[in-house]
Amino acid sequence: MSVRRWSAVAFSIAVLAGVAGPAAASGSVPTWRLVPIPQNKATSNLWDVAAVDTRNAWAVGLEGYHPDQQYTTGDPMMLRWNGIRWSRTSLPVVRGRVSFERVAASSAKDVWVKGSLRASDITDNVSLVWRYDGRTWTEVPYPPGATPSTLTIRDLSVVDGHAWLVGYRGNTPVFHEWAAGSWREHQPPTECVNGGGFVNFCQINAVKAFAPDDVWAAGNGMWNGYMGPLLFHWDGTAWRVVEIGLNQQQVSLQSLDGLSSKDIWAAGDSDTGGGNVVVRGDGTTWQVVGGLNTQRTPGLAVGANGAPWVIGGYPQATFNTHGTGGWTATPAPVPAGAWSAAYNSIAAVPGTNRMIAVGYADLPGTNPLLLQAVIADYATR
Predict the structure, then answer these.
(1) Which range is the signal sequence, renumbered to this chain (predicted)?
(2) Rounded (5°) CA angle 141-71-4
(3) pLDDT at residue 212 above 90?
(4) Radius of gyration for the chain, computed over Cα atoms and rounded to the nearest angstrom
């Protein structure tokens, strides 16, 4: 993980004004609340979360990092939910200063984690992959990420024994599939490849695999005649660009989810602070769902009832859901004494409307500012 990324994390949480979390609801009314997690070493931060059922979920990140010792501190962190509580769980064997950044699972016996070594700049990225079979963790050799390079892996998804890593290498999108015991790199859509005298560009930020021959990715692209957010689809043979009717908009889709490829939600934002975009579609036609009031959309998940939850990241952390009356925003819960919290990822528990979100909050009384990992969930109490 780059120094710049950690610096941005510390800066953003220092400047945000704190907001109180929602009060615990009585009776059967669902609410967002912080949940207890095991004691951990500051600075700690949870980057991602995945759930396969009501008794199995994983959250991954980093702990023990100190901003004054950027290259010599920090250890991988992993927590597991067993249906009752979050606890520490067995870790893969790692080499060097590794941060776990992505986790995905198709069952409690098929869990994947992507991590990276600490990088000083964008040319030093090293990506590592591990797989859990229900008993032990095994490192999965990943040759494209084994040596320092500009390869940036942004997301991970797993379905029916197939794992997908997506991201980009410079201006070129990357689609790597694990199947039948090896990795395969698939060619990007033709629109994303240099040609015609123009420097074409595509960036992939998120991926959702519904089946081995039905995988969706989200990001943005630019070529002669087009600039804006994009979806991408894999049909088992090739990746193709899916335009969503938002040409000439400087917005990139950051996350996507859905109950099936016939009901997909995707959310994105702009690096220039130009607002956000949320779209919903059936795989063929797409509709912009306006009215979401946030400048950052780092995560999105869809519950069993079909309702989306989108993390709002600026100017304060919120959880936003959409219904017949439009968007409803709930201030994200903040630990007692902390100024604010930020959430990086959200996951739906399959078959339920329960949500799990992970991130970090400031640790009061620390100088330089340190962070503490947090987990919030949305459920009936």
Answers:
(1) 1-25
(2) 95
(3) yes
(4) 20
Q: Please determine, for residue 233, whether its predicted confidence score (pLDDT) is greater than 60.
A: yes
- pLDDT for position 198: 67
Q: What is the count of structural domains for the chain?
A: 1
For strands 127-132 and 137-139, give the pairing: antiparallel
Is residue 85 situated within a structural domain?
A: no
> Would the pLDDT of 71 be above 90?
no
Alpha helices in the chain (DSSP H): 3-15
Terminal CA-CA length for the chain: 37
Residue 241 domain flag: yes
CATH classification of the domain holding 232: 2.120.10.80
Taking 70 as the threshold, does the pLDDT of residue 27 lie above it? no
| Rounded mean pLDDT, 188-213 | 88
Give the tokens for residue 375. 């987990």
SS3 content of the chain, % helix, strand, coil (to 5): 5, 55, 40
Structure-token match 């004691």, residue found: 39
